[in-house]
């Protein structure tokens, strides 16, 4: 008989999917590793082969989400030669897959609301680095636009980028928490895009 081939990555993804479902149902503190193993239809011993502690699970869940986002935003610069277009695409990217993220938002706040737990998992630090990556993307695009004469040189790239990231973070968080109607929310996104684009290019004639 041939030995059974185990796709470890597929098994790991199945565990994370099970963990997301159980965390959403019970919350982090009430969830036991046995609950996740049962949901993933495997023995608890098998689960521990992949994740030694419960704390590793949310870190891996959000790590995958943030890594996927980072890969997408790193591709925007290559996909858009015009920095203003890249900034608009960056705004749109921040609002992709919000329904998926809304599913785990209660888990985020449960962890961030407990300093000891957050210190153990390191979630706030992960999010801080992720937001800083978005901030640096916008700074780079604003500066590129200024160098090309497409964005006013009077604009402070670090200040505007930080303000934009704060707005994006706030809008995304509110959507995930309060589940706005998609059409209403997308109208807000369009209004934000129009305001940002208008502000970036409004004083080009005065840049010199």
H and E order? HHHHHHHHHH
Overall number of domains: 2
Distance between the termini: 78 Å
Looking at the structure, the CATH topology of the largest domain is Tetracycline Repressor, domain 2
Q: Hey, roughly how much beta strand do the residues contain?
A: under 5%
Radius of gyration: 21 Å
Report the CATH architecture of the largest domain.
Answer: Orthogonal Bundle
Task: List how many beta strands DSSP finds.
Answer: 0
Major beta sheet, specifics?
none
Residue ranges: pLDDT <50 for 5 or more in a row?
A: none
Any idea of the CATH class of the largest domain? Mainly Alpha
CATH homologous superfamily label of the largest domain? Tetracycline Repressor, domain 2
Q: pLDDT average, as an integer?
A: 90
Structural class: mainly alpha
Shape: elongated
Q: What proportion of the residues is helical, as a percent range?
A: over 70%
How many separate helices? 10
């Amino acid at each position: 008989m041939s030995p059974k081939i185990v796709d470890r990555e597929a098994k790991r993804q199945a565990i994370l999917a099970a963990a997301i479902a159980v965390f959403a149902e019970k919350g982090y503190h009430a969830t036991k590793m046995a609950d996740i193993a049962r949901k993933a239809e495997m023995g608890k011993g098998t689960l521990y082969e992949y994740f030694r502690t419960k704390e590793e699970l949310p870190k891996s869940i959000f790590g995958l989400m943030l890594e996927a986002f980072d890969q997408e935003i790193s591709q925007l610069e290559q996909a858009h030669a015009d920095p203003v277009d890249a900034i608009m695409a960056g705004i749109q990217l921040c609002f992709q897959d919000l329904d998926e993220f809304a599913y785990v938002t209660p888990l985020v706040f449960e962890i961030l609301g407990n300093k000891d737990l957050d210190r153990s998992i390191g979630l706030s630090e992960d999010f801080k680095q992720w937001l800083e990556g978005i901030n640096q993307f916008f700074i780079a695009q604003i500066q590129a636009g200024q160098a090309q004469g497409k964005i006013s040189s009077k604009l402070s790239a670090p200040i505007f980028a930080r303000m934009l990231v704060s707005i994006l973070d706030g809008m995304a968080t509110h959507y995930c928490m309060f589940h706005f109607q998609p059409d209403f929310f997308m109208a807000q996104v369009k209004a934000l895009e129009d305001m940002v684009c208008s502000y970036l290019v409004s004083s080009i004639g005065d840049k010199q």
